[in-house]
Amino acid sequence: MPSTQSAQPLNTDTERPLSEPSIAFIGAGNMASSIIGGLVESGHSPDAICAADPSPESLERLRRSLRRTAPVRTSTDNATAVSGADVVILAVKPQVMSQVLEGIAGPVAEAGALVISIAAGITIDSMRARLGDSTAIVRCMPNTPALLGCGASALFANARVDAAQRGHAETILGAVGIVEWVPTEAALDAITALSGSGPAYFFLFMEAMIEAGCELGLERETATAMARQTALGAARMAIEGDADLVELRRRVTSPGGTTQAAIESFESDGLRDTVKRAMQAAANRAVEMARDMG
What we know:
Structural class: alpha/beta
Function: Catalyzes the reduction of 1-pyrroline-5-carboxylate (PCA) to L-proline.
Oligomer: single chain
CATH superfamily of the largest domain: NAD(P)-binding Rossmann-like Domain
Keywords: Amino-acid biosynthesis, Cytoplasm, NADP, Oxidoreductase, Proline biosynthesis
Pfam family, one: P5CR_dimer
Subcellular location: Cytoplasm
EC number: 1.5.1.2
């Protein structure tokens, strides 16, 4: 969402637009750094962003990643970062989430902040148990292409999230890619299997194409360059083209040609069923992780 700084009245205490939320990131790793970078580049005031991490090295990496833009505020204390924030982004490992939530429960409740979690496997009920029943919570499943501004994030909100807070969540995650709301929290398990884990599937397929290209006589450097560019081109055609995937595939597949021979081989080997089984395994594991993490 574009910045509206020039058109909005200013809060004289913070010198930022009244409509612009103050955001606290708990955790300053790669995903948090990517979202912060996307927000700043889209016009969000760096003064309205604070990142907390116990590691000074992580905070320094964040500062270096933002060298082209104005720096955001940083802290090694979570409670300090959260104090007064409109939105709190939980970007920590699931294993430390319980400790983190207990440490910020007071400031979150006092500020009435929206909490957005990008941690896999941590349910809203689990977070509510530590933050309080009245907490507005959005669970988010992003994916690693967000590091390049090409992410795909699915969101689910509990009943405490109002329209303005939903807008904040869309703006924040929309700074690094597309955003889709899902109707149930359970749907996030399917999202995990599809887009959360999905980049790895494409990387594996590209690896297999490169290996096959080498066995067919290509130099590895050539096979790698061609596979990468082919994947990029196919993705852009799927997103920017004028037809659905079935039609795009049909246009490449000339009757009796080389592509048809390859497609028929994939189909006879059960590629679609293989993909279904793999995604079901990923979704099952997401459910198991949520159960294991309480």
